[in-house]
From TrEMBL:
<keyword id="KW-0560">Oxidoreductase</keyword>
<comment type="similarity">
    <text>Belongs to the aldehyde dehydrogenase family.</text>
</comment>
<dbReference type="InterPro" id="IPR016163">
    <property type="entry name" value="Ald_DH_C"/>
</dbReference>
<dbReference type="GO" id="GO:0004029">
    <property type="term" value="F:aldehyde dehydrogenase (NAD+) activity"/>
</dbReference>
<dbReference type="InterPro" id="IPR012394">
    <property type="entry name" value="Aldehyde_DH_NAD(P)"/>
</dbReference>
<dbReference type="Pfam" id="PF00171">
    <property type="entry name" value="Aldedh"/>
</dbReference>
<protein>
    <recommendedName>
        <fullName>Aldehyde dehydrogenase domain-containing protein</fullName>
    </recommendedName>
</protein>
<dbReference type="InterPro" id="IPR016161">
    <property type="entry name" value="Ald_DH/histidinol_DH"/>
</dbReference>
<dbReference type="InterPro" id="IPR015590">
    <property type="entry name" value="Aldehyde_DH_dom"/>
</dbReference>
<dbReference type="GO" id="GO:0005737">
    <property type="term" value="C:cytoplasm"/>
</dbReference>
<dbReference type="InterPro" id="IPR016162">
    <property type="entry name" value="Ald_DH_N"/>
</dbReference>
<feature type="active site">
    <location>
        <position position="139"/>
    </location>
</feature>
<dbReference type="GO" id="GO:0006081">
    <property type="term" value="P:aldehyde metabolic process"/>
</dbReference>
<feature type="domain" description="Aldehyde dehydrogenase">
    <location>
        <begin position="25"/>
        <end position="156"/>
    </location>
</feature>
<dbReference type="InterPro" id="IPR029510">
    <property type="entry name" value="Ald_DH_CS_GLU"/>
</dbReference>
Length: 162
């Protein structure tokens, strides 16, 4: 809903800050879609990440291919079933599979690639993107830090975190 409610505001052209060198040109920043975006989904938050990244790509006016993680077959099946019901199949696709399918997707030319996951796989994704000079968004690390209040029961906290 956040994307839907704010889209028109974000899409408006913007005037950059005043700069004496360019004032006579009346510069304007126009936001245009990149094209076709590849989103490589992660396994630990598969639905949340898929919806947020694909939603962002759609809000920016792009077509999108979502490659779901092979480690979450039930979520992948659900997304594969539901996406075609609500999204135009000419603009949005879901791809399932493992390493061979991801490798085949990375061999293709994309306008942008979004990947969330481990640094090791991030290196593979960025190397494949570099072959075509494809811009990438990489969210690497896999760390989920937690701050605990000293008053918390450590056994209950540990059980809930695990």
């Amino acid at each position: 809903m956040y994307l839907y409610n704010n889209f028109e505001t974000w899409a408006q052209p913007q005037k950059p800050p005043f700069n004496i060198k360019f004032w006579a040109f009346s510069p304007l920043i126009r936001k245009v879609p990149k094209g076709v975006v590849l989103v490589i989904g992660l396994f630990n938050y598969p639905l949340t990440s898929a919806i947020s990244f694909v939603g962002g790509a759609i809000a920016a006016g792009n077509a999108c291919v979502l490659k779901m993680s092979e480690l979450v077959p039930h979520v992948s099946a659900l997304v594969t079933e539901l996406f075609p019901e609500y999204l135009d199949q000419d603009l949005f696709r879901v791809v399932n599979g493992a390493v061979p399918e991801t490798t085949a997707l990375l061999d293709l030319r994309w306008d942008h690639i979004i990947f969330t996951g481990s640094p090791a796989v991030g290196k593979i994704v960025s190397a494949a993107a570099a072959k075509h000079l494809t811009p990438t968004t990489l969210e690497l690390g896999g760390k989920n830090p937690v701050f605990c209040d000293p008053k918390m029961d450590p056994y209950v906290t540990a059980r809930r975190l695990v």
